[in-house]
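Re: that backbone. Tokens:
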């Protein structure tokens, strides 16, 4: 038995461990497989622990007994206590020495357990903070010195990666804290996926880890990364829109989609191109507030809708950003609850953060005049974000775009392999009547969301906003005595940006660059995001044209069987 055979203590986070000296444990298989313990001074003793303890215990109590006896005798013989003999001096020295030892062994251990517990608590406090989101925007910041006196885990070797993986698996180190703990995002992702594989027993070998800049997503795009998913990017084009040619990046795994969009581009190109108009540009956020009665809720509604008050509210709102410009506040009442739909332009940003900050400014300001206003939530769903809602379909949200093209009769025949009458009839019965029968909300189209989603993913937009961004009504009409086809798409709520969110990631940024809309437009703030919205509408137009043509010509199933059904037997692919 030796000092290492003390009863095991609960494993500590590395912050609470003793520092480099724990490396001594790595050599032995038994010790290396268990959590590391902090080193103790008694580890260095030459004798086995129990013998050393026995010696000092015996010494302490025997000399104490001896000295007490001597003092009793001295009192009895009336000898002054301070007159000491040589054996008494030796006994006092032994008493002090054994006391120091026992204090060192039990006392320091006792203190050590307190220090360790304090460090552990600090970790747990940090865990709580992160789980509550208090530090999520600053996850890369080094931990406070009192919590983590060893800043450089990143300097440790692979063997120590192994130790960290084990600590994540046994729960000693929380997975989400790896980035801040290691100060190396790639390594954090590596450790996390290793731990995940061990915990689940499932392999992540085919989920790539290398070749991705994990620093670029920290605190911005994705938490707890373990790799990245590869999505192929195809290109459709050139899309001739408003006199300019665009090569449109589409990230998709749906066979036929890029090919079909490409065919639509060809038809539009051959007909002289498409034209677009941006009807409106304003992101919305609608908080919900509650009053004691309907009268007070109505008073705030009238206050907000009174043009006299708009200038003040605008001033307060616009303080949130140099790009945020308040446009309108529309109110809706449900009993004593008031929903205020703020709309503002947001430059080249999609704008959700920006508009939310502006709304918060106004709510704080309103609280002065309406102290009885109870703010229930900064978002009350009248906005309406990432949900199908008539308000977006009717009022618009983000960019509202209408786009049209005139397709010549011969192009309809030669490129689209159908005829104008068949297309017009199909559009009427499918996109308009069929969608009405289905009770559609903004879904009066064939597959706008296919194109919207593919471009959203390629260019770093928020894919969840595909819900309302894909609202679209496709119209087809025979013109020029029925020979040519007029086709249009109207999309009231395309929510896109070219700064912020995923747009700054390398591959998404490259796709924006392909379209000439990367980043902020310095000269005309907002012009890049607006152009992106019109390109998306133009791409939806060509997508609608091509798919409807395929259906009208009875080609849909045939072409899907050709492009969307691999001849590989997927059951044999391991
Ligand atoms: P969102 O509001 O879409 O969530 P962010 O919160 O990331 O986007 O805001 C965009 C950030 O980019 C803001 O800090 C803003 O000041 C900055 N920015 C720089 N140039 C522009 C621009 N041309 N248009 C909009 N924002 C810009």
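Recovered sequence:
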């Amino acid at each position: 038995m030796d000092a290492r055979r003390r009863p095991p203590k609960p494993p500590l986070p590395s912050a609470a461990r003793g520092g480099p000296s724990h490396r001594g444990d790595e050599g032995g298989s038994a010790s290396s497989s268990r959590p590391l313990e902090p080193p103790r001074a008694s580890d260095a003793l030459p004798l086995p622990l129990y013998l050393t303890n026995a010696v000092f215990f015996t010494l302490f109590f025997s000399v104490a007994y001896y000295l007490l006896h001597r003092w009793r005798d001295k009192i009895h013989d009336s000898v002054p206590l301070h007159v000491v003999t040589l054996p008494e001096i030796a006994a006092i020295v032994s008493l002090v020495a054994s006391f120091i030892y026992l204090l060192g062994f039990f006392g320091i251990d006792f203190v050590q357990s307190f220090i360790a517990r304090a460090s552990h608590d600090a970790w747990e406090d940090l865990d709580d903070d992160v789980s509550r989101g208090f530090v999520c925007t600053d996850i890369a910041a080094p931990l406070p010195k009192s919590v983590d006196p060893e800043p450089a885990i990143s300097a440790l070797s692979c063997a120590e990666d192994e130790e960290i993986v084990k600590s994540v698996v046994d729960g000693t180190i929380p997975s989400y804290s790896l980035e801040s703990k290691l100060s190396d995002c790639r390594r954090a992702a590596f450790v996390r996926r290793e731990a995940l594989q061990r915990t689940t027993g499932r392999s992540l070998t085919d989920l790539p880890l290398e070749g991705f800049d994990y620093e670029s997503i920290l605190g911005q795009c994705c938490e707890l990364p373990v790799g990245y998913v590869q999505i192929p990017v195809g290109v459709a084009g050139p899309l001739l829109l408003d006199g300019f040619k665009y090569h449109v990046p589409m990230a998709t795994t749906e066979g036929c989609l890029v090919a079909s969009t490409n065919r639509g581009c060809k038809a539009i190109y051959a007909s002289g191109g498409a034209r677009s108009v941006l009807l409106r540009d304003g992101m919305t956020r609608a908080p919900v507030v509650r009053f004691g009665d309907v009268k007070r809720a109505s008073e705030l509604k009238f206050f907000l809708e009174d043009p006299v008050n708009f200038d003040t509210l605008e001033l307060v709102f616009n303080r949130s950003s140099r790009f945020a410009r308040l446009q309108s506040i529309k109110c809706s009442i449900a009993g004593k609850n008031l929903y205020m739909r703020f709309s503002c332009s947001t430059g080249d940003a999609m704008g959700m953060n920006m508009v939310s900050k502006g709304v918060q400014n106004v709510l704080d300001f309103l609280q002065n005049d309406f102290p009885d206003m109870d703010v229930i939530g900064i978002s009350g769903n009248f906005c309406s974000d990432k949900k199908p809602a008539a308000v977006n379909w009717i009022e618009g949200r983000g960019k509202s775009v209408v786009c049209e093209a005139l397709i010549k009769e011969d192009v309809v025949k030669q490129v689209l392999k159908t005829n104008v009458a068949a297309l017009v009839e199909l559009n009427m019965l499918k996109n308009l009547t069929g969608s009405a029968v289905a009770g559609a909300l903004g879904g009066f189209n064939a597959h706008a969301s296919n194109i919207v989603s593919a471009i959203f993913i390629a260019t770093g937009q928020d894919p969840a906003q595909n819900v309302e961004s894909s609202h679209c009504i496709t119209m087809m009409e025979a013109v020029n005595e029925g020979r040519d086809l007029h086709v249009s798409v109207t999309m009231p709520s395309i929510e896109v940006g070219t700064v912020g969110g995923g747009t700054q990631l390398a591959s998404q940024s490259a796709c924006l660059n392909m379209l000439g809309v990367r980043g902020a437009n310095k000269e005309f703030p907002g012009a890049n995001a607006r152009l992106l919205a019109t390109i998306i509408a133009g791409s939806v137009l060509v997508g609608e044209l091509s798919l409807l043509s395929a259906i009208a010509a009875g080609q849909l199933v045939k072409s899907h069987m050709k492009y969307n059904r691999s001849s590989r037997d997927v059951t044999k692919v391991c």
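The longest strand covers residues 274-285. Residues 141 and 180 are 6 Å apart (CA to CA).
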